[in-house]
Amino acid sequence: MRRYIRPILGLLIITTIVLVCWYFNLVSYINLEKIRQWVDAAGSFGPIAFIGLCIAGVLLHLPELILIAIGGILFGSVRGFIYGWIGSIAGSTITFLFVRYFMKDVFQRKIASRFKYLQSIDEHFVKHGFKTMLVLRLFLFMSPPVNWFIAVTRVRFSHYFAGSMLGIIPGVAITAYAADNIAGVKSFGDLITSQHIIAVLLIIVLLAITSIAAWKILRNDSGRAGLNE
Predict the structure, then answer these.
(1) Burial class (CB in 10 A: 0-12, 13-18, 19+), 88
(2) What is the per-residue pLDDT across 153-173, written as a single tens digit (0 to 9) for each?
(3) Cα torsion 89, 90, 96, 99: sign
(4) Contact, 66 vs 172, CB < 8 A?
(5) Section 67-76 average pLDDT
(6) Residue 168: which domain range?
(7) Torsion-angle region of residue 141: left (phi > 0), alpha (psi -120 to 50) or beta?
(8) Which of 33, 34, 80, 170 could form a disulfide with 71 if both were Cys (CB 3.0 to 4.6 A apart)?
């Protein structure tokens, strides 16, 4: 029975969180005006309050990209990026540690050990944890299923943290920058300015560089796997 105390306790905590989100309809609070009031009420601690909100957004599976976009509008692209990045990393790290503590042992014993496909994925995380995390974050950003699934694998925490820390930079930066620039637009004509055109071009270039980097990482890993076979 001792083996099941942690997962049972973890499930109870998760169930409680889900019920709280449903009962209080927390998703309805994710809008610009309510968050602006929350940040303004915190005064000089507004940035800390926003970072805490981003952490809660990851933990409660709230729309994180919307929160980061709101941060870009409230604080500007640079500060919005910094606060959103810190909050996202802190939230994903807490989620990882929670799931690893309560769920990893049961997953490894009862599920992964029975399926060769899961064992191969698990082994891949052990050998290429940082690169795999980097690619996953580049393409999937803060996807809650990613946080939960990776935590029950044998990936090193250092690889998870470093890959996440670097991998979400493009997504957070693009979201905060785009939100900051579009927030003041009142008509379509306002979009046709050199500033917004440059912003769009920068986003396209950043996405292209990210995609090429991820593709090269995956190709190199596949090539090495082929040689090993």
Answers:
(1) buried
(2) 899 999 999 999 988 988 898
(3) negative
(4) no
(5) 92
(6) 2-228
(7) left
(8) 80
Residues in the chain: 229
Total structural domains within the chain: 1
Q: Distance from first CA to last CA of the chain, Å, rounded? A: 42
Please state the φ and ψ torsions of residue 60, each to the nearest 5 degrees. Answer: -95, 5
Model-level pTM?
0.79
The residue with tokens 């709101």 is 70
What are the structure tokens assigned to 37, written together?
Answer: 């009031």
List of residues 6+ apart from 67 with CB closer than 8 A: 30, 35, 53, 54, 57, 84, 87
Residue 187 structure tokens: 């008509």
Whether the Cβ atoms of residue 70 and residue 94 lie closer than 8 Å to each other: no
